[in-house]
Amino acid sequence: MKKNFNASVRASSASSHVSKTPRGAREERVYLPIDPGVVLLDIAFVPDDPNHGFLLGTRQTIMETKDGGNTWVQRSIPSAEDEDFNYRFNSISFKGKEGWIVGKPAILLYTADSGETWERIPLSAQLPGDMVYIKATGEKSAEMVTDEGAIYVTSNRGYNWRAAVQESVSATLNRTVSSGISGASYYTGTFNTVNRSPNGNYVAVSSRGNFYLTWEPGQAFWQPHNRAIARRIQNMGWRADGGLWLLVRGGGLYLSKGTGISEEFEEIPVQSRGFGILDVGYRSKEEAWAAGGSGVLLRTTNGGKTWTRDKAADNIAANLYSVKFIDDKKGFVLGNDGVLLRYLG
């Protein structure tokens, strides 16, 4: 049976509901009770309870499911409600029953009971940049990244953080600009995107997209790399085999040669209908999905060598920003205007 993503769009009801599509091919449509302008940003499930998950977005959006993502309800967290701020919740991660949420303006939430209660952890006002990513790594432990390239680790529930990178990205570029990193002198000090591999390596794209950077555990600073493509980079991430994928602005998909960090890429033909591809997510070493502007959704079943367009999202007038696979049976694509696509295995 062909595996598809199903369109999930917003509605004004107090909780989401599911309705069958006319085709009856196990396709469901979930209507999310959120404002029309909300951009969905991240999703995570509790490992000890795989039906229990949380969905984050702009405009202080936190939603909760207890049935594997079929239905969602708004979740209120008193410690995250502030009259002066409208938080953008960027990232969520669980390890066991412990979970973490980070957002902008600077906010850090922690749970030790699978998200039943959330505690707000104070953060230093000196934190460089906005928190864009967090990864739960163990008991009371997490790794946090800012859009200025700071990486911090904690092992005591976030009360103390240790810097894993010894200098800022700007300082690294100032030191290495003479080594020939094209575009380094135009660096504005922030990342456009940052993605982490399962073994803790990072790849980040500069805000202008004119070069990228990598970091591996134990390195003192980020390593800058020239882009091997004429067009500017939109996003980069990790394949299931440990290699890199690269998206360029205006459409275009490239895969690195071999596994691990590489500066050699080859272009892969894709049919994106002229719209940019914004993210790639791997379900397995062979199967992956790519999503982009105006409902573009592509699928590969041979590790990325060839891609075919899936028409499930063609009628959705939304940009699809992020592909998230929780495991090989549970996956989602997150978009703007509250659009959520759910993978059916």
Automatic annotation (TrEMBL):
It comes from the Eukaryota. Gene3D superfamilies: YVTN repeat-like/Quinoprotein amine dehydrogenase. Pfam families: PSII_BNR. It is found in: Plastid, Chloroplast. Residues 1-22 are annotated as: Disordered. Residues 7-19 have a biased composition (Low complexity). GO terms for biological process: photosynthesis. Residues 29-343 form the Photosynthesis system II assembly factor Ycf48/Hcf136-like domain. Keywords: Chloroplast, Photosynthesis, Photosystem II, Plastid. GO terms for cellular component: chloroplast; photosystem II. Its main location: plastid. Essential for photosystem II (PSII) biogenesis. Belongs to the Ycf48 family. This is Photosystem II stability/assembly factor. The lineage of its organism: Eukaryota, Viridiplantae, Streptophyta, Embryophyta, Tracheophyta.
